[in-house]
Amino acid sequence: MMNKLKIFFRMIKIEHSVFALPFAYIGLFWAAKGWPGWTKFLFLTIAMVAVRSFAMTVNRVVDFKIDAKNPRTQDRPLVRGDLSLRECYYFLCGSVVIFCLACAGLNKLCLFLSPLALVWSVFYSYTKRFTWGCHFILGSVLGLAPVAGWIAYSPFFSLPSILIGCGVMFWVAGFDILYASQDVEFDKKEGLFSIPAVFGLEAGFAFSKLSHFLCILFFVLAGFAFNAGVFYYIFLLIIAIILLLEHRVVSPQDLSKINLAFFTLNGFISILLFVGVLLDLFLKY
């Protein structure tokens, strides 16, 4: 049982929850203007991990045949046979139940919106079959995190959380475009859509840089909308430097350090912004 669970965690890359979870916490802590209490914190954490597990499993199931053809993804557990499709369907059902129960534990609005979050997560997995905008749709899925965090505490939509969500969308799109650069030839062969496959690597990197510029812009606007203090902007400056570094270590001519840019550098960004928010909140209020 434990070994099977470890395989599931490997399939969904549970460690990459660090990409979205801190942004959900930002929305939560901003709505509360400080510590939101253990109940909200724990239910939000459970909901975010569950919905991410659901979305990743859906993506693996939907892309099963594609992953089996792509040399880069042939070692994924579902392709290798370490997991069966039936086991994945059971895992999906369990994730949905846990997610909906966690949303119910937060408030009625979260429960009411939970099916929309699930449907949008499923929709993304099909988008690379018909649009190069798939990177931005993936970004919008993760961009729901700060909005979800806010309504988990205060059941209404707010400008700061929406602006942070827009920043997350462009941040994710930017690094997903870089990641897709590894599969340009495969995507063309299979008739799949991505910005590098449709427009070329040079254009793809330009799109990525523009997306990350817009990411920082929306984070700045979110800070103004919330009336954030100096610590928020200090850490935002550090994030901007990291994004610049990310575009220095990879280029259309050299993709060898794509994993450094995608996994290592990006893993710091959401954490750093959350730390900036925490320092700003607890030294300000």
From TrEMBL:
CDD domains in the record: PT_UbiA_COQ2
Topological relation to the membrane, as annotated: Multi-pass membrane protein
Residues that span the membrane, as ranges: 41-62, 88-105, 134-153, 159-179, 191-210, 216-246, 258-279
Example of a GO MF term: 4-hydroxybenzoate polyprenyltransferase activity
One GO-annotated biological process of the protein: ubiquinone biosynthetic process
InterPro entries tied to this protein: Polyprenyltransferase_UbiA-li (IPR006371), Prenyltransferase (IPR039653), UbiA_prenyltransferase (IPR000537), UbiA_sf (IPR044878)
Subcellular location: Membrane
Keyword field: Cell inner membrane, Cell membrane, Membrane, Transferase, Transmembrane, Transmembrane helix, Ubiquinone biosynthesis
Ranges in coiled-coil conformation: none
Cellular component aspect of the GO annotation: plasma membrane
Cofactor names: Mg(2+)
Entry EC number(s): 2.5.1.39
Pfam families: UbiA (PF01040)
PANTHER family: 4-HYDROXYBENZOATE POLYPRENYLTRANSFERASE, MITOCHONDRIAL, PRENYLTRANSFERASES
Family membership noted in the UniProt record: Belongs to the UbiA prenyltransferase family.
Name of the featured protein: 4-hydroxybenzoate polyprenyltransferase
Organism in which the protein naturally occurs: Desulfonauticus submarinus
